[in-house]
Design goal:
By secondary structure, the chain is an alpha/beta fold. Helices cover 44% and strands 21% of the residues. A five-stranded mixed beta sheet has the order 2-1-3-4-5, sandwiched between helices.
């Protein structure tokens, strides 16, 4: 799977360069894996603005700017939180696209959610797209890698718009 994800990151970086666009990431359960794949691509410094990993709700609220009510009412693992993470990292970095991922990598559940529930989002000048993923929790690494792969698919779709 790692080879496929790297190919996706290369495609995303290539499209960003072609369209003269920039990207930033806000990650939780993937722990910076998306940013690591982006920066593994030669020349990514031309398109990558900022990568942030935030595990705590305090950081999501105080640094990323996720609404406190959203975190209390919907939780860190929610469609709303993913959307706000993507939009706020985009704004903070001044990038064209903001990508985010939040969820439960496992092996244990969190906030009453089972492992494998992940939300990914892409914010761009046309709005915010959020996608719910229910990944088979074969392992923590499998959930994380699948989430990043799906995030790159979403990014490629958004960049191509």
């Amino acid at each position: 799977m790692k080879e496929e994800i790297f190919k996706q990151s290369c495609e995303a970086v290539g499209l960003l360069k072609e369209k003269n666009m920039t990207v930033s990431t806000a990650e939780s359960c993937t722990g910076g894996l998306a940013a690591a794949y982006i920066t593994a691509v030669s020349g990514s410094s031309a398109v990558f603005e900022l990568g942030m990993t935030s595990y705590s709700c305090r950081v999501k609220r105080d640094i990323l700017g996720v609404d406190g009510e959203t975190l209390e009412e919907k939780g860190a693992v929610s469609r709303e939180t993913a959307g706000q993470m993507a939009e706020n990292i985009r704004k903070k970095a001044g990038s064209d696209i903001g990508l985010s991922v939040t969820g439960v990598a496992g092996p244990d559940g969190s906030e009453g959610h089972a492992p494998g529930l992940v939300y990914i989002a892409a914010a761009y000048d046309g709005g915010v797209l959020v996608k719910e993923l229910n990944i088979n929790p074969l392992s923590r690494e499998y959930v994380r890698e699948t989430a990043v792969s799906e995030l790159f698919k979403l990014a490629i779709d958004v960049i191509g718009r």
